[in-house]
Design a protein that fits this description.
- The termini are far apart.
- The protein has a seven-stranded mixed beta sheet with strand order 3-2-1-6-7-14-15, with helices on both faces.
- The protein has 373 residues and is α/β, with parallel strands linked by helices.
- It folds into two domains: 180 residues, 3-Layer(aba) Sandwich (Rossmann fold); 146 residues, Phosphofructokinase domain (Rossmann fold).
- Helix 4 crosses helix 5 and helix 7 runs parallel beside helix 11.
- The chain is 36% helix and 18% strand.
- The C terminus is likely disordered.
Length: 373
């Protein structure tokens, strides 16, 4: 793609730390390397669908280093409604893809960089296909459940927040001789819980991918107490199901249902079964907000500049990815197939089991072979 082109960048889906660092990297690389105009599309796809259009022009010199340190996304985002089938007040559904295509044409866009999870990229890639608009994706989600990449923007900071929470819970749990249960985000994937649980010295880690029983959890608690310890720390991912197989959900105003409450469910039952005072703590949206970690700033910067290079090559329908310590790209059709889940033999699960952490399920210990020299 030659000079004097215009690209748009939008953030879509749930917010996380590192999004502004991505926007900064795209704007800086597009200006410095190619001399392009860059427009920040406000509030995801809705910025091109509503009238008047909602956008800001992003100057390379204006994207200073303060963007690296700021949380959230100054472009705004939304995680509600599918513009391909948007629910209307009268109960009908409307396809806003013509408005999206018209908006992109009005702004003179040659391509769009979309920062989102698998769901956001699936929807936006279809909108761009119908509009005849090039698209490149950048993975972001605290859940780290996007296929094709080892890491997504936002995951590292969320893990740091959860790990710090566990560090703090150890001391208060020990002071009161309690079992403390930390409920973390992650939807149907257990990457936050497993990673933070190992780093934070948890005794028990429960994730959606691995089955557990309350009897086994209680047995582990009693085993810990039998060593002379007076406290136990447990991490549970929000998507873990109750023993009856049902999800723990909270219904918000308007009828929206979200995962939540598994920590309280476990606390109510563990207290009696294990004979220890138990307190649940829901970490919630603290995992999404705040200052990005150094690792998230690095990944965001590498992803943003690599995405601009893909645009320059006309490599449409691809997502930048972090694989084996380097930045590469993968086809979007390999990404938008649903959530990437934690495998029973994942190195994280094997590490936790080797450390004596109860994780439920079954997984072999990790065996590392040495090659003869």
């Amino acid at each position: 793609m030659s000079v004097n082109r215009a690209i748009g960048i939008m953030t879509s889906g749930g917010d996380c730390a590192g999004l502004n660092a991505v926007v900064r990297a795209v704007a800086c690389a597009a200006h410095e390397q190619y001399g392009w105009k860059v427009y920040g599309i406000l509030d995801g796809t809705s910025g091109l669908i509503t009238r008047p259009l909602r956008y800001v022009e992003l100057g390379g010199s204006a994207m200073d280093s303060s963007c690296l340190r700021s949380g959230g996304t100054f472009l705004g985002t939304t995680s509600k409604g599918d513009p391909l089938q948007f629910p209307m007040p009268d109960g009908s559904y409307r396809d806003f893809s013509p408005e999206f295509a018209e908006g992109a044409k009005m702004l003179g866009l040659d391509a769009v960089v979309v920062v989102g999870g698998d769901g956001s990229m699936r929807i936006t890639s279809e909108l761009c296909r119908r509009a005849g608009l090039g698209m490149v994706g950048i993975p972001k989600t605290i859940d780290n459940d996007v296929h094709g990449t080892d890491y997504a923007v936002g995951f590292a900071t969320a893990v740091d927040v959860a790990t710090e929470a566990l560090d703090r819970l150890h001391s208060t749990a020990a002071s009161h001789h309690r079992a403390m249960i930390l409920e973390v985000m992650g939807r149907d994937a257990g990457y936050i819980a497993m990673t933070a649980g190992i780093a934070g010295g948890a005794d028990i880690i429960l994730v959606p991918e691995l089955p557990y029983t309350l009897e086994e959890v209680s047995h582990k608690i009693r085993a810990v107490l039998d060593t002379g310890r007076s406290h136990v720390v447990i991490v549970v991912a929000e998507g873990v199901r109750r023993e009856d197989g049902q999800s723990a959900v909270i219904t918000y105003s308007g009828g929206e249902k979200r995962y939540g409450g598994i920590g309280h469910y476990l606390a109510d039952r563990i207290a009696g079964m294990a004979g220890i005072e138990t307190r649940p703590i829901v970490l919630g949206h603290l995992q999404r907000g705040g200052i990005p970690s150094a690792r998230d700033r690095l990944i965001a910067s590498a992803f943003g500049t690599a995405a601009v290079d893909l645009v320059a090559e006309g490599a449409w329908g691809r997502m930048v990815a972090w694989k084996s310590g380097t930045v590469t790209s993968v086809p979007l059709e390999d990404v938008t197939t649903g959530a990437r889940l934690l495998a029973a033999d994942d190195v994280l699960v094997c590490t936790a089991k080797a450390l004596g952490i109860y994780t439920g399920g079954s997984a072999p210990f990790l065996k590392v072979s040495s090659a003869a020299s």
